[in-house]
Amino acid sequence: MQLGLSVSDSDVSSFTPLVVLELADDTKAEAITWLLNRIRDKQQNGGAELLVNQLLFPAQDDQKPNPNVFVVGSTLQRLLNGAEDVGLFKEFQDGTMRGFTYANRESFKDFNGDGEGFLSDAECQYIIKHELDTLRAKNEEHVPGYPKLKLYPGKSVVRRLQSKGVLIQYFPLHNKEDLKRLSFSWYKKFKLSLQPLDDIRHYFGEGLALYFGFLEYFTFALVPMALIGIPYYLFDWEDYDKYVLFAVFNLVWSTVFLEVWKRCSATLAYGWGTLSRKKAFEEPRAGFHGALGFNPVTGREEPVYPSSKRQLRIYLVSVPFVLLCLYLSFYVMMVYFDMEFWAINIYNENPDIATSILLFVPSIIYAVVIEIMNLLYRFAAEFLTDWENHRLESSFQNHLVLKVLVFNFVNCFASLFYIAFVMQDMVLLRQSLATLLITSQILNQVMEAFLPYWLQRRRNKKVHKRMRRLMGDKELPLLGQVQLETEMNTYLGTFDDYLEQFLLFGYVSLFSCVYPLAAVLVVLNNITEVYSDAFKMCHVFKRPFSEPAMNIGVWQLAFETMSIIAVVTNCALIGLSPQVKAYFPESDTQLILIVVAIEHVLLAFKFILAFVIPDVPKHIQVNLAKLEFDSLEALKKRKHMLQSAQADLIMRGKNSFPQKTKDMFGIKY
Amino acid sequence: MQLGLSVSDSDVSSFTPLVVLELADDTKAEAITWLLNRIRDKQQNGGAELLVNQLLFPAQDDQKPNPNVFVVGSTLQRLLNGAEDVGLFKEFQDGTMRGFTYANRESFKDFNGDGEGFLSDAECQYIIKHELDTLRAKNEEHVPGYPKLKLYPGKSVVRRLQSKGVLIQYFPLHNKEDLKRLSFSWYKKFKLSLQPLDDIRHYFGEGLALYFGFLEYFTFALVPMALIGIPYYLFDWEDYDKYVLFAVFNLVWSTVFLEVWKRCSATLAYGWGTLSRKKAFEEPRAGFHGALGFNPVTGREEPVYPSSKRQLRIYLVSVPFVLLCLYLSFYVMMVYFDMEFWAINIYNENPDIATSILLFVPSIIYAVVIEIMNLLYRFAAEFLTDWENHRLESSFQNHLVLKVLVFNFVNCFASLFYIAFVMQDMVLLRQSLATLLITSQILNQVMEAFLPYWLQRRRNKKVHKRMRRLMGDKELPLLGQVQLETEMNTYLGTFDDYLEQFLLFGYVSLFSCVYPLAAVLVVLNNITEVYSDAFKMCHVFKRPFSEPAMNIGVWQLAFETMSIIAVVTNCALIGLSPQVKAYFPESDTQLILIVVAIEHVLLAFKFILAFVIPDVPKHIQVNLAKLEFDSLEALKKRKHMLQSAQADLIMRGKNSFPQKTKDMFGIKY
């Protein structure tokens, strides 16, 4: 709760600043006054009851500072009440996780005195974000000073300001001391150890901590595969026949891997109190627009966009566009094969060192082109999905993920499938896979580690220069920090990080039997990935708002789909191997039938396994059941007490229980 | 609520009797007194607060009547409170379904005056059953008079008495007038019309109504298939090549069929108020036993049976037993094939009418043997599953269903798979399928329609004789009815009925392309099935307690698994058809690869379809979301009221809100 920076700035803000709010520098004064009043107003008047102060930056010679930057904080009491509003789960005295209520605060573990230090920084910031987001218009018809910025009762004020560009951004502030401690235990010490997931969750929230948990789990799960892969690679380099055993291992591994992860994820989420937390009612996205109508669920007036129109946009524009992109991707692939043949021909005509290096050039070019195409497509997909005008953020995300996944899958793996099953050239497959994997890893590392490091150094210099100039008149670390963080890039969520892991998982689970070093390369990549991701979270991007997550969401489904494709692919690769073919010298038919039969059995086994292994470990199931049982018992007890109280009053001959009190408490009996 | 029989028996019971309770005729008097007291005792003393009266049957010359038969009823007020306890959902004023609360009773549709007629008979009986089941031991160490019948605080009294044979049975009484009306609209009129599902649900509860809904839906879904099947059968009798089109149709049909049913089922369950109803905390089964320990969830003392012991019993006894039975089933199948060849040989040597009839004899014998084996196995499976000592009824049911399904599937379909894919003899397949289907249908109709009808006639005569004898001294329709219904068989649930439909679905979806008349036969069977099932529910069995059900449960999964197997089977049958083979004259390999590829695409398509089609129709989703939103809003409102009330009190300078009142109402703030 105690931000290190608040000490010396008592003249700037009288409270611990948690969130920064930046309005456009030409915002009208009446709008600002109105917004600040609404934020400060009491809850019973529909306000957010938060503390807010303006930050005034001293003018600098090179640029005029934005005058409309504010810091938001809160009293402890308000935060604890807010924790109940957002449905936070915390550890109870008996070790189970329970929904926090202000009334029972004393029964929660780690609640001492007035509750100082009970909520983590990230939780406080999340609560403030929630309170700001649910600050709703009352009877205002429009934002004061902006007749065109229409409002209607119940509309989120912040979303409206944001969608119209009046509110540029709002983001949580870093806590320098905590950050220092976290980054030390996370990536600054050079001994091998597990990541401090609980600290990451404390500082960045559950969504990000789950990503790093998954990254770690995935990397560890790859280690046995990498260990088996090294001898395979070293001793069987030219013996393409021996990969049957590896394919079988691959197949079992990819199935078990995801089932066990579900349980790990449930354990983590339970410990972090997000497993049984109820989802809040989802608000429309900031960018959602439509004619004013009535929401069938809430009955409130809000923009409505007919779902038929959205379907038309999806099926008449988005789907054809995606198909066109897939066609383009296939076209590029065929060009790559032409280049490949051309290089092979040159090598065959004149085999020397120069031409043998030339052999790898088409693959490298192709890998780079793939990365560029993925990047470009990503922008197009975001634009299209935004244009589809989804009402909810979750629906937007699902459509975006689907679009991007399909394209990336085809773009990255189509050439490998083509080589494996149409050309049936295992040497070329091995070579292509290696080149693709290594090139894309190098590109990723540059984009994710070196580029950020370089940007960071550049920014550091700039800030030092500025700080030196400011030092002249006054010491204002808060102003400096806010200015620095305002200019940092915004972290756009775990999407790209998961996508990268998804593609790596694809390379390993689909084709590593022909190139056993794949697992080794991915392990190496992921170790540096942890460091570069940690670094970028701590120093390159603005601190993101904590995102409560109970699992890795749609990515679990994506990885499971990939593991099903992996079963089919590995079975097919086994069927193609000369080793297996040798057993059926006279007829291909029998071989194919047996491979297909085995594949079906494996798929059935996989589904049964997924069905039989409980997604949540036993002891957590018991805890969850206990929670539910307790709440049922409490409900029953309360009802009985009400009944006996009522009976008592009737017995005394006067059913005079004051009606007003009953109404006031909303008691029903 | 008004049972037709209560009018003339005012001397026997002063209330409407709803449930009959039969104790063993040698039950000790003190146990009876104790039990009746507990049933009649007030709720705040831990009683059930129900009305109960003894029925005294006049002695008859041929047998001594059981003196320990009781009828249980309840006051209206108690039933309405009980409706809240069991979490009944009823239609609200605004047309949505909401959890009934006594406080809000006036806001529910059809609630007039004191609530007479608001609850259906079946609901009242279900509430009484629930109250009896949750009648718990207090400090009694054992049942009075039975030192060996141990009790512990919280143990369900009725379950303990039942498991030790003191309580023979308890069952709801039929309502003669309602039954007459229901049976007339259901099966006594001979015009084609939909079943009165709402009336069935009113009288028998949601579980049974869903079964009849499914039966009707399945039959209707089969009609297009039957309509296509008839011309196929008539014009292509000897042309086995033409079944490709039919197989493709089959494949699409079996996928769409189940997806649409999910939506129908959700619509029915929503209208009946069971879709969003929360499951009550499940009690241990009556037969569950173990050493006394502590339940980790409730913390109560209760029998505990280590799950490792159960696993041992399952894997060391049950699984080998099932495998042995499967082996036996295969053995019987091979014997059948021997018989089949023997019959064919005789026919070939001397082809005349007698030997051509002989051709069908092995199939008929095999069909009869299959039915007998299924029946025997059913008993063994029930015994074994009981011996596995599952704690919960749901877990018991799941293990039983799994055991029975696997065996029945293999027993019924193994020979057909063998003929289709090992022998590849489509003529024999068609003949076997027809014989199996027709024989098992005839057997089923005899067992389900003619046998009950005959039993019913026999019982009617007996009752008339007895009634005539009783008529002599007094008119006691209640006594007569209770005596008659006590002797009726108990309906053991929808298990066998669903199982029969499951196997019929298998015949149709797996193999109907080679015998297109299968769908026609199943439609005909199901039409008579509706009548015989309706008749048996109304007149052959005791009225069952209503069973709230939100879907067809584990059977949905069973049917879906069957439809996946159907895709694979139909693809394989297509691959085997001479028509398709003709396209690939030179190589089988290419044909197989294409068939496998198509099969994979179809399976993928099936999963995507299941994922894309929402299980709950849009308008019901909106209603459910509305409900959730309203309860969230109510909670928020209540919290704010509490807060402002508190603030109010603090303002007045005296936080004197009486602590006792707060505790009494369990209010938390």
UniProtKB/TrEMBL annotation, chains A, B:
Xref: PANTHER family: ANOCTAMIN, ANOCTAMIN-10
Pfam families in UniProt: Anoctamin
Molecular function terms from GO: chloride channel activity
Organism: Sinocyclocheilus anshuiensis
Transmembrane feature ranges: 208-231, 243-261, 314-337, 357-379, 400-421, 504-527, 552-576, 591-613
Family: Belongs to the anoctamin family.
Membrane topology: Multi-pass membrane protein
Residue ranges occupied by any Anoctamin transmembrane domain in the UniProt entry: 200-625
Official protein name in the record: Anoctamin
Domain of life: Eukaryota
Coiled coil: none
UniProt-annotated location(s): Membrane
Keywords in alphabetical order: Membrane, Transmembrane, Transmembrane helix
Annotated Gene Ontology cellular component terms: plasma membrane
